């Protein structure tokens, strides 16, 4: 089955090359072709989903291909998926056809280049999650910048050039130091860039590990983005075309959190344990700050963009808890954010296509005019603020309970502040819904807005299905992530043991506080168990 | 001199013979049809490259030159550069109606000097090779004769180049005084202040040629003023040949002299590398003139190459350093020729050479290019991303190899400075892409179609850049093999 992953990985790229041969004027052909390629990719990736062995005893990486690529430099082509990577690949392949369909009418100029860029981007995104060679990972990670840079810069709105250059330079600058760190790793793990081998045999001094962790963490923290390195995000999200915003929010930000989970933590566990408090604190600051910034935005897209800062803060907080619940919730929240924030950007895109404005003040009371869009918007909003029954609840609950029970210093504070973020989230999202959809319809311009078209319904339905399915049946997704999460925790525990050997008096770091262990063992069940923090707020219910 | 010796020298001989043939052909030309001249020059370039690829490994009598994997690789790179520049020059000259056999003859003479430079293991022979190369390029820079810019560029280049040659020659004389030989292999025999001064002067002369800071001041003016195809040839060929000599010389110095002197030389070279990377990138940042920006960027790239040379100087990373330099030279040559080729294609032809267009290379010339000339814009975007070192292009693999060598030599500081300055680079290279793809289209004049040979050169270069970025295995292996046989 290893071939299947390679097919899924490169099919979009070959699709893009084929699209380059189609004549420029044939816009309809380019759209249909991109849709076809991305749909076929999605259906093939379902093969990965159903063939994945999610048992705990199963191999860590599946669908592996390992061949030399540039042997003169020691670089190999090594790809494979663990549970987390599989989930993110599925998210990518599912979002791409949606994005293609959403861009159908939105993109009028240079249609050919647009869809080539999207397909190229899909290969690079899948490659980032599938790569098991450090340099291959870096290549895919950087290759994403080029099409994304073009997407924002060519098809974005007024301030696009500033936004896209900022996006590119920010991300590029942060990741080059990771390249030096990768090279350093190469010379300290027996001369290989292979991730699996490097994780086994890497031996660096404590000080060096701190620097290496810092280099990796910097690259990923910009991508996530974590406060205070988030400033590129509001600009990029706001100026990007709808398709670009959806991909940025849905997939690209996950590359940062995935990078922490896959590289920064397992490669340098001691350093990660040393700095987890700092990272978790920044995550909490990000949660609150992003939420507060969202509350004062007048631009819908910017509001959703800042809400991403807040949501990604949850992902990082859960990860830094280093408990089974926290990390599982963190992985789940990555998917949730992709679905719900992706959905919000799609909806804002729909409105913007109709009214050519993103300002909240230009809307008001349009629920009567566009009942379908309003209904869907409310559902996606509820998912975004974590109402029970939607996917957002599962993730936020796991993260907050995992954080509360963790062995961070004074974990209750982290969890409590995180919960405040949940409440603030409900405030700004519901205010947005109220100001846009309810109240008096007093702007005559808004009386002419058409409701959802059939094509747009096809765009939104998968999002709604995912919201409900992931909210009510989280088990298959959590089970898929479980072995990877367990392995990560095992690695962190081993690191803790090593630390304790050097420093016997060390307080426990990994896992949950003892009384909680029995209670919270099956992390998938959100219902039972005393939740010490306020459950995601009741504000959401109406 | 045996047959094998001749075979080893065959690339140089071919290039020289080709140049003479072209000179004579111009004398006897009556029809005025000159299309065959560029064809002949192209064929000679290809033949010389092939001859270098199959050249036997040999030390030529007297030990003044060797033919080994390293020289073969360098000759192949300069010949590829020549071939592309010939295609480029053909289109440029034809448009202006100033095509003459001498142009190609000079390019071939210059390349023969470069080829010899790749083989030289003796200061005196190196000096002769440098002069053969430089005199041809001085003349090429002034080739259009009329118009202020080329003459100014050629004059500056000539004066400063002669100064550099004089430094090199004086340094060689001091080295001879200290050691009694000009052979690289004999440098270890002497010592003391005389040798150190001599080596420093030789290094300074070479630093002029490779345009390393603080010996770079001539570069922007000369690169900007020279006819663009010649600039491309200089950036690719002269740089490759000069770096070949620098690498060979530096390795011989490190191997020959005491550890202390070697470390001092390394320190000097490291300083030059850092200065070149920082100054080159910083000065390129505000340039709106694309040609001048590429000139400053070539200074920055000299810095990255110096990092590779420096890494080659320490024992554990010797091979990875040399092969990184070789790969970098190949990648930079195709990328920079491609970039200058696009600049050439966009140049307006003025009615008379005495009238010079205002701001012919301004960034605004590139505005909206993606609409009017999508192919050209796409190729330029590839070259810019490669120069910036973004995967999957040749430039990324090249930078990667150089920094890998640097980390292997434990020169972490150099690697960090290198990656950080390359971020600056990303900014100004991207500005060209922004203008092409995101800027408003220029109204009125349409860019002319590039002449066929020029378009071929651009397409070849773009293909090479992508191929070296996606599948660099073959060239990287060749570079590695060449490094082991130095």
What would you call the structural class of chain B? mainly alpha
How are helices and strands ordered from N to C of chain A? HHEEHHHHHHHHHHHHHHHHHH
What can be said about the biggest beta sheet of chain A? 2 strands, antiparallel
Radius of gyration of chain A: 22 Å
Q: What is the β-strand count of chain A?
A: 2
Gyration radius of chain B (Cα, Å) is 21 Å
> Tell me, what's the shape of chain B?
globular
Number of helices of chain B: 18
Description:
- Chain A is mainly α and 542 residues long.
- Chain A is built from 20 helices and two strands.
- Chain A has helices spanning 2-21, 27-51, 83-106, 111-130, 134-143, 145-155, 160-186, 195-201, 206-223, 232-239, 242-267, 269-295, 300-321, 324-355, 371-385, 391-404, 411-437, 454-472, 475-502, 514-519; strands at residues 62-70, 75-81.
- In chain A, α11 (242-267) runs antiparallel to α14 (324-355).
- Chain B has one domain (3-485).
- Chain B contains 18 helices and two strands.
- In chain B, a hairpin with a 6-residue loop joins β1 (58-59) and β2.
- In chain B, α11 runs antiparallel to α12, α12 packs across α18 and α14 packs antiparallel against α16 (412-438).
- The longest helix of chain B has 32 residues, at 148-179.
- Chain B is globular, with a radius of gyration of 21 Å.
- The two termini of chain B are 22 Å apart.
- The model of chain B has no long low-confidence stretch (mean pLDDT 88).
- Chain A binds chain B through residues 24, 68-73, 110, 113, 135, 138-139, 142-143, 145-146, 149-150, 153-154, 160-161, 164-165, 168-169, 172-173, 176-177, 179-180, 183-184, 186-187, and chain B through 323, 370, 374, 385, 390-392, 396-397, 400-401, 403-404, 407-408, 412, 415-416, 419-420, 422-423, 426-427, 430, 433-434, 437-438, 472-473, 476-477, 479-480.
């Amino acid at each position: 089955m290893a071939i299947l992953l390679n097919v899924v990985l490169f099919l979009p790229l070959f699709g893009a090359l084929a699209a380059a041969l189609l004549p420029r004027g044939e816009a309809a052909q380019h759209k249909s072709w991109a849709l076809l390629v991305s749909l076929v990719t999605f259906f093939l990736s379902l093969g990965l989903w159903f063939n994945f062995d999610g048992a705990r005893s199963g191999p860590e990486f599946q669908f592996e291909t390992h061949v030399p690529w540039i042997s003169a430099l020691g670089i190999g082509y090594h790809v494979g998926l663990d549970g987390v990577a599989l989930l993110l690949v599925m998210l990518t392949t599912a979002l791409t056809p949606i994005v293609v369909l959403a861009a159908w009418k939105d993109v009028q100029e240079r249609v050919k280049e647009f869809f080539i860029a999207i397909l190229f981007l899909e290969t690079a995104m899948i490659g980032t999650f599938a790569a098991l060679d450090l340099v291959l990972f870096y290549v895919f990670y950087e290759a994403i910048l080029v099409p994304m840079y073009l997407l924002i810069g060519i098809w974005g709105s007024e301030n696009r050039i500033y936004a896209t250059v900022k996006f590119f330079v920010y991300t590029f600058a942060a990741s080059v130091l990771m390249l030096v760190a990768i090279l350093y790793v190469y010379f300290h793990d027996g001369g290989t860039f292979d991730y699996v081998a490097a994780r086994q045999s890497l031996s660096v001094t404590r000080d060096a590990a701190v620097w290496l962790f810092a280099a990796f963490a910097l690259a990923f923290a910009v991508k996530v983005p974590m406060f205070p390195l988030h400033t590129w995000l509001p600009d990029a999200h706001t100026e990007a075309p709808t398709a670009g915003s959806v991909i940025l929010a849905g997939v690209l930000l996950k590359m940062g959190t995935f990078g922490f989970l896959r590289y920064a933590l397992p490669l340098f566990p001691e350093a990660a344990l040393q700095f987890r408090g700092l990272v978790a604190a920044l995550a909490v600051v990000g949660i609150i700050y992003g939420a507060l910034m969202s509350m004062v935005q007048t631009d819908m897209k910017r509001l959703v963009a800042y809400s991403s800062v807040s949501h990604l803060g949850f992902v990082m907080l859960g990860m830094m808890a280093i408990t089974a619940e926290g990390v599982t919730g963190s992985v789940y929240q990555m998917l949730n954010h992709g679905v719900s924030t992706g959905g919000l950007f799609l909806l804002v895109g729909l409105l913007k296509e109709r009214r050519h404005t993103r300002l909240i003040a230009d809307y008001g009371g349009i629920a009567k005019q566009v009942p379908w869009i309003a209904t869907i918007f409310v559902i996606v909003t509820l998912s975004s603020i974590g109402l029970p029954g939607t996917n957002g609840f599962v993730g936020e609950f796991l993260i907050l309970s995992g954080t509360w029970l963790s062995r961070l210093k004074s974990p209750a504070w982290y969890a409590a502040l995180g919960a405040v973020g949940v409440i603030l989230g409900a405030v700004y999202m519901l205010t947005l819904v109220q100001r846009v959809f309810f109240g008096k319809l007093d702007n005559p311009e808004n009386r002419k807005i058409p409701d959802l078209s059939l094509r747009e319904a096809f765009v939104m339905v998968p999002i709604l299905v995912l919201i409900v399915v992931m909210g009510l049946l989280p088990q298959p997704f959590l089970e898929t992530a479980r072995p990877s999460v367990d392995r990560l925790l095992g690695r962190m525990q081993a690191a803790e043991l090593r630390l304790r050997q050097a420093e016997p008096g060390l307080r426990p770091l990994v896992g949950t506080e003892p009384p909680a262990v029995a209670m919270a063992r099956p992390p998938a069940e959100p219902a039972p168990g005393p939740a010490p923090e306020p459950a995601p707020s009741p504000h959401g219910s109406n | 001199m045996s047959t094998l010796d001749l075979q080893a020298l065959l690339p140089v001989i071919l290039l020289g013979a080709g140049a003479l043939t072209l000179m004579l052909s111009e004398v006897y030309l009556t029809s005025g049809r000159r299309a065959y001249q560029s064809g002949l020059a192209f064929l000679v370039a290809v033949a010389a490259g092939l001859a270098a690829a199959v050249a036997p490994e040999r030390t030529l009598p007297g030990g003044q030159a060797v033919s080994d994997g390293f020289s073969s690789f360098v000759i192949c790179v300069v010949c590829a550069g020549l071939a592309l520049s010939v295609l480029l020059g053909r289109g440029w000259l034809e448009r202006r109606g100033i095509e003459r056999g001498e142009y190609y003859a000079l390019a071939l003479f210059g390349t023969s000097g470069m080829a010899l430079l790749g083989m030289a293991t003796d200061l005196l022979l190196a000096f002769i090779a440098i002069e053969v190369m430089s005199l041809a390029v001085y003349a090429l820079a002034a080739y259009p004769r009329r118009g202020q810019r080329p003459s100014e560029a050629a004059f500056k280049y000539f004066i400063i180049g002669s100064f550099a040659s004089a430094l090199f020659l004086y340094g060689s004389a001091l080295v001879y005084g200290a050691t009694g030989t000009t052979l690289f292999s004999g440098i270890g025999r002497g010592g003391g202040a005389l040798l150190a001064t001599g080596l420093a002067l030789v290094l300074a002369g070479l630093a002029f040629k490779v345009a390393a800071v603080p010996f770079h001041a001539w570069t922007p003016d000369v690169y900007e003023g020279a006819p663009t195809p010649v600039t491309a040839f200089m950036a690719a060929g002269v740089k490759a040949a000069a770096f070949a000599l620098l690498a060979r010389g530096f390795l011989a110095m490190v191997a020959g002299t005491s550890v202390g002197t070697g470390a001092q030389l390394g320190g000097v070279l490291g300083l030059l590398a850092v200065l070149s990377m920082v100054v080159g990138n910083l000065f390129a940042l505000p340039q709106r003139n694309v040609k001048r920006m590429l000139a400053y960027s070539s200074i920055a790239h000299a810095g990255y190459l110096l990092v590779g040379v420096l890494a080659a100087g320490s024992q554990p990373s010797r091979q990875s350093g040399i092969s990184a330099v070789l790969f970098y030279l190949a990648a930079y040559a195709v990328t920079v020729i491609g970039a200058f080729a696009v600049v050439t294609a966009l140049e307006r032809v003025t009615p008379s050479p005495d009238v010079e267009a205002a701001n012919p290379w301004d960034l605004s010339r590139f505005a909206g290019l993606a609409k009017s000339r999508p192919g050209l814009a796409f190729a330029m975007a590839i070259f810019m991303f490669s120069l910036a070192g973004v995967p999957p292009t040749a430039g990324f693999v090249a930078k990667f190899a150089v920094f890998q060598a640097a980390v292997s030599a434990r020169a972490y500081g150099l690697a960090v400075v290198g990656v950080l300055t390359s971020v600056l680079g990303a900014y100004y290279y991207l500005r060209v892409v922004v203008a092409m793809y995101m800027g408003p289209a220029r109204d009125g004049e349409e860019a002319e179609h590039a002449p066929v040979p020029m378009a071929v050169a651009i397409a070849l270069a773009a293909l090479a850049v992508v191929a070296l970025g996606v599948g660099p295995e073959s060239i990287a292996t060749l570079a590695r093999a060449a490094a082991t046989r130095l």
